[in-house]
Amino acid sequence: MPNFTEIAYAQQLDAKDPLAHFRDQFVIADPDLIYLDGNSLGRLLKKHSRTAQDLIERQWGKRLIRGWNEGWIELQAQIGSKIGQLVGADADELIVADSTSINLFKLALAAVRYNNGRSKIITDDLNFPSDLYILQGVAQLAGRPLRVQIIPSDGIHGPVQALAEAIDNDTALVALSHTVFKSSYTYDMTAVTQLAHNAGALMLWDMSHSVGSVPADLHAANAPLAVGCTYKYLNGGPGSPAFLYVQRAWQAKLGNPITGWMGHEAMFDFALDYQRDNGLRHFLTGTPPILSIALIEPGVDLLLEAGMAALRAKSAQQTSYLIDLWRTWLEPLGFRLNSPEETAVRGSHVSLGHDDGWRISQALINDMRVIPDFRKPDNIRLGIAPIYTRFSDIHEAMRRLRQVMDERLYERYSLAENGVT
Ligand SMILES: *Cc1c(COP(=O)(O)O)cnc(C)c1O
């Protein structure tokens, strides 16, 4: 085997990679472009164009309203049950609907109304800002004094000990990201769910940054509630609808606060009063966006075919490889590792911190044809999607990053951040 800093080393790993052929299923419009942002927006599959064409020309164009009875009305549950196979949920426990933020709102408000004698929601400062804003809004709507307590971390690792101390019998809900968006720290879902349950609190996991890259088993963890995103590692397309999971035992106990006709036990009776369905469907609200939902399926099918265990094994090897290259090439140039060193608690992206991180990420995108993203204050996030990222992509991206530094290419860029980062 060549030394790991040589491109031949990466090429040998690619040649041995049992998942390598899945890359052929994706549209790679520009072979020289290295895409390391699949944790924000996954790639387009070749299958997507065929699926979209059939949807528009045949299903909508020719079948018109009959489409609802020819599959559309089942689509949320059908794709939900497939996502359920990725995360250890049964077919009647996970459904595609709305956005992650909206689903979080529905489940969080349902949970605090259920645990109505308690006055705290616990989360941490690594959680996604939209999640924190939603929880703060939920606290205002609870109809009683309820506060959101944000447990501080070291910026990289989940503050498990401090969470354990804060979760008590006044806690209505614990809401955390399974894999956190900046550092990629990944919680032990079973252990933290147990902490919540020991105190009689409900646990709500946001799986947006783990689903499709980090294995999870909601049943084994005895997790009652979860939400997650489909446009990241599931490759569902920009703004594709999200999913929500409610463990069977909780479905009748919790009420969806947005009571629309799709959650009614007999929606086509058009009765004047809301009477909810008792299963998962009462967490639905309005008419689903079929064109967007249908495009989630090809990516999920591909991940199921690859298998979560194989995807995780490759992802862990790839993030470790990236960290080895960082230590040799980039740590001496002032880059910090803003992700956990321990593979077991690391998700599928690696954040490298640098005082000039914003300008360096601009030079990478514009001069070096490498697409990461940037998260304040200093994180250059390098996302690895094991279904299509190659070891040689990682080697080449790190080589180009070094070139940005050697040639000081970032100095031409403005310090002002703008646009979608
Ligand atoms: C991406 C992401 C979201 C996105 O929520 P939207 O409602 O789709 O904007 C929410 N939470 C987490 C943890 C995420 O990573």
Strand content: 5-15%
Number of domains: 2
Low-confidence stretches: none
The share of residues in helices is 25-40%
Task: Write structural notes for this entry.
The protein folds into two domains: 7-46 and 307-412, Aspartate Aminotransferase, domain 1, CATH 3.90.1150.10; 71-304, Type I PLP-dependent aspartate aminotransferase-like (Major domain) (Aspartate Aminotransferase, domain 2), CATH 3.40.640. It contains 13 helices and 13 strands. It has helices at 7-16, 46-63, 75-87, 100-114, 129-141, 160-166, 189-198, 248-251, 290-294, 297-306, 308-330, 357-368, 391-406, and strands at 34-35, 94-96, 120-124, 147-151, 171-177, 202-206, 225-228, 243-246, 336-337, 349-353, 370-371, 373-375, 379-383. The chain has a seven-stranded mixed β-sheet with strand order 2-8-7-6-5-3-4, with helices on both faces. A four-stranded antiparallel β-sheet has the order 9-10-13-12. Helix 4 runs parallel beside helix 5 (129-141) and helix 12 packs across helix 13. The two termini are 38 Å apart. The chain binds pyridoxal-5'-phosphate (PLP). The site of pyridoxal-5'-phosphate has 13 residues, from helix 4 and helix 5.
Q: In summary, what is this structure?
A:
This protein is α/β, with parallel strands linked by helices and 421 residues long. The protein has helices spanning 7-16, 46-63, 75-87, 100-114, 129-141, 160-166, 189-198, 248-251, 290-294, 297-306, 308-330, 357-368, 391-406; strands at residues 34-35, 94-96, 120-124, 147-151, 171-177, 202-206, 225-228, 243-246, 336-337, 349-353, 370-371, 373-375, 379-383.
